[in-house]
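To: structure subgroup
Subject: Chain for Friday's discussion

All,

I'm putting the inputs and outputs inline so they're searchable in the archive.
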Amino acid sequence: MNTVRLRLDLAYDGTRFAGWAVQPALRTVQGVLEEALATVLHLDHLRITVAGRTDAGVHARGQVAHVDVAVDTWLAAAGRSSRSSQDVLVTRLGGLLPPDVVVHRVRVAHPGFDARFSALGRRYVYRVCDDATLRDPLRRSHVLWHSHQLDNEAMDAAARALLGRHDFAAFCKPRVGATTIRTLEMLTWQRPVDGPDAGLVVAHVQADAFCHSMVRALVGASLAVGEERRQVRWPADILAGRQRDPGNVVAPALGLTLEQVTYPPDDELAGRAELTRSIRSAEDVDSLRRDPDAAAGSC
């Protein structure tokens, strides 16, 4: 059977979802989206592949997924409309999906595209409010309220020591057979002076991929430094130990948003997917920079 691969660009508010992945008797983004898409395409079932599985309560503004459907099913999607199948599908999904999930675009993917394995990187943002005068009840599900003032400069210095390709086992929930080697490309903490996040303490986190709970564990370690409960070198010490530290509390999900997934040019998609599927070697890691000042100089 000839099939066509569709790319979906979507966003969702994770507050009322038990994460992305389908789970029995629980409301999940994947479950809601697959049900709506199957209804629109008149299919009994289908399976969606996503760029990054988000945990319960985590939001997404720039999520990407793909689904394979029969060519005949795709061509019939427009029905009697004079519009394209892409436009019709977006409109019909908009009328069927709940308001906390939005599919912005649907398009036929380039050959070799894989929403998960073709991705170059994922970028998350974590937002914290530590100033009662800036606490906004309308953003209570998207910004973490922190009752103690944070030293964002110390947090940023600690974060720089973690950049590079390392075994992030100390910041991941273990999964049998899964590697914890990742390339952390960006981890910054800033306090913007303008824009919608002015005055907040904001982390930008980017990596080639993330293992389970990695971003929130990194945020948790950063918050401990920002509260001055831990020294700037502590997150790097945890990383070097390659074991979960019971003193590092994983940050709540509500402050975390998947902002963007990036992909290479079309002619490099298949090659990137093949490279991503290859096993990451424990020897293929960078030397850990334990001195925050040295790390700052290399950025």
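Points worth raising on Friday:
Strands lie at 3-12, 49-50, 59-70, 101-108, 121-129, 144-145, 164-167, 181-190, 201-207, 256-262.
The radius of gyration is 21 Å.

D.
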